[in-house]
Amino acid sequence: LHLPLPTSLHLKWATLAAQKKKHVLLEKPVAVTVAELDQILAACEANGVQFMDGTMWVHHPRTAKMREFLDDKRRFGELRTIQSCFTFAAPESFLKDDIRVKPDLDSLGALGDAGWYGVRAILWAADYHLPKTVVATPGSVTSDRGVILACGASLHWEDGKSATFHCSFLTHLTMFLTAIGTQGTLQLNDFIIPFQEHEASFSTSSRAGFDDQVTRWEPGPRQEVAGIDGVPQEVRLIEEMARLVGEIKVGGAGKVDREWGARSRKTQQVLNAVKESIEKGFVPVEIA
Hints:
The chain is 34% helix and 25% strand. By secondary structure, the protein is α+β, with helices and mostly antiparallel strands. It has two domains: 2-55 and 233-267, 3-Layer(aba) Sandwich (Rossmann fold); 57-231, Dihydrodipicolinate Reductase, domain 2 (2-Layer Sandwich). Strands 4, 5, 6, 7, 8, 9, 10, 11, 14 and 15 form a ten-stranded mixed β-sheet that branches. Strand 6 (141-142) and strand 7 form a beta hairpin. Residues 65-186 form the GFO/IDH/MocA-like oxidoreductase domain.
């Protein structure tokens, strides 16, 4: 059951769906708080149904190819820094009437809508290891109704990794992801929705330096291309959900893939930590 409802309604309807033995495909952000999501996941667990959120880009063939590069110790090395950004300039009608700016419907605003993608990308690059602390960036923009319209944050891991993200309803359409390792760099500027539907690309640079005259790179970056074989990422998301449901029908509740819920929960944890940091004056917030 696909639930494209306002976030404030997710707890009620996702829980009811699970209790009716319906598998749950839930739009992001999946909940207002981690506590609400825990109730949804508990209902899915108790009723032996699959949970998945609607983050579509992770199902694109490009994502698997990027994972191969990040996992290559020779070409990429150890991950050290990640940067992500998703912004779009919403029209005045959106800022006035859209569900995503109404505190009783989607109180997380741009953080929950656009920030979800950036945070998920960071966690994906970090192999879903949670940061130790999160600090919101001063200068966030909040509407007169108390909904976040633009914000950013830095994330810090115990092993020294760091990441930053920015999200906004107020600035030009931008969606980049950069992951920097000790031996290489991955970059792309359309990580959520590709520039072209039939294929998508990303840039890799490995063991790069300057020539003797310091006038050019050696070796230069290369473009990697991934086709979709006629199946867009949104369809692949549905196909993966259907595959998981099929396995459960054959093998029973023991075949439920709980990893999807765990990834959603980690994303929600970071989002809520960012919001808490903003509300407390941009102080560091530890993630348990």
